[in-house]
Amino acid sequence: MPILFVGHGSPMNAIEENEFSKEWQALSATLPRPTAIVSISAHWETKGTFVTLSPTPQTIHDFYGFPQALYQQRYAAKGDPQLAQEIINQLDPAVGGDNQWGLDHGTWSVLKYIYPQADIPVIQISLDHYLSPQQHMELARQLAFLRTKGVLVLGSGNMIHNLRMVNVKGGDFNAEHGYDWAFELNDVFKTKLLNRDIQPLVNFSSLHPDIKLAIPTAEHYLPMLYILGMMQPNEKISLFNDKVIAGSLSMTSFLINDYT
Fold first, then answer.
1. How far apart are CA 107 and CA 105, in angstroms?
2. Could you tell me one molecular function GO term of this UniProt entry (predicted)?
3. Which of 127, 130, 136, 222 has its CA 20 to 30 A from that of 230?
4. For the segment 164-212, what is each residue's pLDDT rounded down to a tens digit?
5. What does the radius of gyration of the chain's CA atoms come to, in whole angstroms?
6. pLDDT tens across 129-155, in order?
7. What confidence score (pLDDT) does residue 259 get?
8. Torsion over CA of 231, 237, 238 and 239, rounded to 10 degrees?
9. pLDDT at residue number 94
């Protein structure tokens, strides 16, 4: 199966028809139908790693101050407790199961466009706040077996994500606009990615003098490492939604597959 990293951006993308949501819709026509979806979202950080076990995961509205229409959104995909338990059994060191968490907006705001029927089981794997980037990468490599089982793995975050420095231009949050360092680092990330120079992306803290402006906290960046950790040699990397917005956010996303 292909693997996918999506810059999910604002929760408003879940109810707006814009260039980003249109690209997500377009993916549905190119991706093979998976047996299940495993999502690693920036919005579920934990102490330890956990996998959702619920057969009917709730739609989580983990944001505030948005229009009521956004809180009325539901993504009624089923869970897959059997697959979740297989993941738990496969990973070392041991991870736990979770019956409380559901699907947060890093997951459902994207999947509602790619698989609008919500008829494919979805589970989430949490981000252990206490693991190093290298440890996240090693965990990702253990998850690569999912690709041979027809499972689509989604990493959802943003390569560049600094909400404290957001600067909306002309009232349009999604207009192309960024600080010099944001454009520069977006190019650095893409160059490393397309050249398959992956280790500097893992050791990102020393990648660039302004890296702390782009990644003040790592939770939106780390889902990308899970996708890179599952990549096989010579696979095709296709960029989409390659855009810096709101001064300090990158929507740049990519699909990895072995299509000829």
1. 5
2. zinc ion binding
3. 130
4. 999 998 889 999 999 999 999 999 999 999 999 999 999 999 999 999 9
5. 17
6. 999 999 999 999 999 999 999 999 999
7. 59
8. 80
9. 86
Burial label, 148 (beta-carbon count in 10 A; 0-12, 13-18, 19+): exposed
Q: How far apart are CA 48 and CA 131, in angstroms?
A: 8
Tell me which amino acid residue 78 is.
Answer: K
Q: How many angstroms separate the first and last alpha carbons of the chain?
A: 13
Report residue 198 as tokens: 């992956």
- Model confidence pTM above 0.85: yes
The list of the chain residues with pLDDT below 50 reads 260
Ordered DSSP codes for the chain: --EEEEE---GGGGT--SHHHHHHHHHTTTSPPPSEEEEEETT-EESS-EEE--SS--B-----SS-HHHHT--------HHHHHHHHHH-SS--EEESS--B-HHHHHHHHHHSTT--S-EEEB-EETTS-HHHHHHHHHHGGGGGGGTEEEEEEE-SSB-GGG---BTTBTTSB-B-HHHHHHHHHHHHHHHTT--HHHHTGGGS-TTHHHH-SSSTTTHHHHHHHHTPPTT-EEEEES--EETBTEE--EEEEE---
Give the Å distances, CA to CA, from 240 to 124, 148, 175, 243, 253.
23, 25, 16, 9, 5
